Amino acid sequence: MKIIFLGTSAAVPTATRGLASIAIRRGGEVLIFDAGEGMQRNFLLAKLGINQKMKLFITHMHADHCVGILGLLQTMTLLGRNKKLDIYGEPRLHEFISQNIRVIKFGLSFNLDIHIIDKEGVIVKESDYQVSCCRSEHSVPSYSFSLQEFDRPGIFNVAKATKLGVPKGNLFHKLQHGEDIIHNGMIIKSVEVVGPKRRGRKIGISGDTRPSVELERFFANSDVLIFEATYTQDKYQNAVNTFHSTAIEAASLAKASKSDKLFLTHFSSRYKDPSILLDEARTVYENVELAEDLKTVIIPYTR
What we know:
By secondary structure, the protein is α/β, with parallel strands linked by helices. The chain has two domains: 2-152 and 198-298, Ribonuclease Z/Hydroxyacylglutathione hydrolase-like (Metallo-beta-lactamase, Chain A); 158-193, no CATH class. 27% of the residues lie in helices and 26% in strands. It has helices spanning 39-45, 63-66, 68-78, 92-104, 158-163, 170-176, 190-193, 213-218, 236-242, 247-256, 275-281; strands at 2-7, 9-10, 21-26, 29-33, 53-57, 85-89, 112-116, 121-125, 129-135, 143-149, 181-183, 186-188, 202-205, 224-228, 262-265, 267-268, 288-290, 296-298. A seven-stranded mixed beta sheet has the order 7-6-5-4-3-1-18. A seven-stranded mixed beta sheet has the order 8-9-10-13-14-15-17. A hairpin with a 3-residue loop joins strand 8 and strand 9 (129-135). Helix 10 packs parallel to helix 11. The two termini are 14 Å apart.
């Protein structure tokens, strides 16, 4: 699993930062969170692949988080995508996409499946992971997201299974995935040759929001938390008035949620050098970094 930051600025792009977008490549799939205007340029530079299995999640319907959908769809069509694309967002998302396609009059080379989010909870459930959403506190209807992998099977003790006379192949597979077997008239339990289950990885993505107790619970024990840090603490009232967060507030929530690693993003363009936000966050929480456009972060298993 790796995270690629495609856009890390807030509201206004800068010479080095595009508008909000984050990609997670996991196996043969790409999950994208938000699509700020022009994000397809960094999408192409990141070489994520036009024709991959893909899902797009939109936190809220502000221009710097959703206008880039149109350019992404058209770019994918012009480059020949033919696989279905799933998009998830609040009810106005369907109208936004369909009306713009009608007015601009561009066709799609692939099927588009728009899924409306109207409540909190699990919105995607695959065989080995799920994506959930939680209401965030912003000036319009808005959601935060988490990607949670299911527990993996424990480590399979090949030597012990072989010593018990189990042949490689289907019986190995059954034991590794928790099934007990009968071999040569003897019951062999999976727990005899397989260690305890191993925890999957969890990634939290805040979108635009004020910090809250609900988000602290939602992001609990994340391996990586990506949280907006639009302002320094001296602009606290700006953060409150615009329903954004300061770097210190992001760090405080990461600490309270017991997240392992924090990435700050969504920086106001007033900060020519966002390291001031990093310095403030580190007064509260040590394991924090600034997101940068096209920065790639590999997320290992913790055990």
